[in-house]
Design a protein that fits this description.
By secondary structure, this protein is of the alpha+beta class. The chain has one domain: Jelly Rolls (Sandwich). Helices cover 24% and strands 24% of the residues. The strands form 3 sheets. Strands 1-9-4-11-2-12-13 form a 7-stranded mixed sheet. The protein has a 4-stranded antiparallel sheet with strand order 3-10-5-8, with no helix packed on it. The termini are far apart. The protein binds 2-oxoglutaric acid. 2-oxoglutaric acid binds next to strand 4, strand 10 and strand 11.
Amino acid sequence: MPKLLNENETAQFHREGYIFPIKILDDEQISFNRSLLERFESAQGKPIGGAQRNKSHLLFKWVDDLMRHAMILDAVEDLIGPDILCWNTLFWIKEAGSESFVSWHQDLRYWGLDTDDLVSVWLALSPATPESGCMRVLPGSHRGDLLPHKDGYELDNLLTRGQEIAVQVDETKTVEMPLQAGEISLHNVRLAHASGPNRSTDRRIGLSLHYMPTRAKQTVGEWDSAALVRGKDRFGHFSITPRPSRDLDPVTVSFHEKATTAVREVLFKDAEKVRETL
Ligand SMILES: O=C(O)CCC(=O)C(=O)O
């Protein structure tokens, strides 16, 4: 018995590699979460960046709570089953009027994970529209071999290595995934996706959450971590991340450093350059 998705949605996810939009947060919850992010940014005097963008559930209790949101997990369970790890929680912020973009890429090419059942949930904490640079996807591209990629290292590219699919993506076949604040999209981690600059007057704030079955393994890094968000872990392939008792809990902040260092080593494996700013 499905928990949240109907038959058409599940079939579309498997056939096309994505579904959207699903409303998760109401207006009060959106402004609550956004204000916690922006209060932290005001206190540190700059936008969240660098390692803070990754595994942010170890820094902020409110991100840990979002990662365990029952509706999100119900949708994910309908796609990959009841025993679920969250590998990463990652902020994607494009400031108002900024040139920040994301080149066409397939995440599985870089993450060292051995599963095709990895689901990326992208939660909008502000409107993600064509104007503000919402995600675009190439339907069906999650099937077949991973495409070759090259590294571009452009400064405005939000991707670690500025990685980009090295063959021409037929733009006429791509689909935009606009979201209102509080909505999510879900895509398969093999799906080719990208996004353009933010021409709007508001920040485009997205939080992506990467869910996988507990049987998944890290094949590049020697050590890696993930949060057990639902069900049982009968495999023990990942160190289970501790839960913060409050924002910037010293125990989880210290774990965050180890966990994000391990992720960086995987993401930059065999890279020509390592960027310090991401
Ligand atoms: O936020 C974006 O525009 C791109 C996000 C992305 O690449 C991802 O969630 O995998």
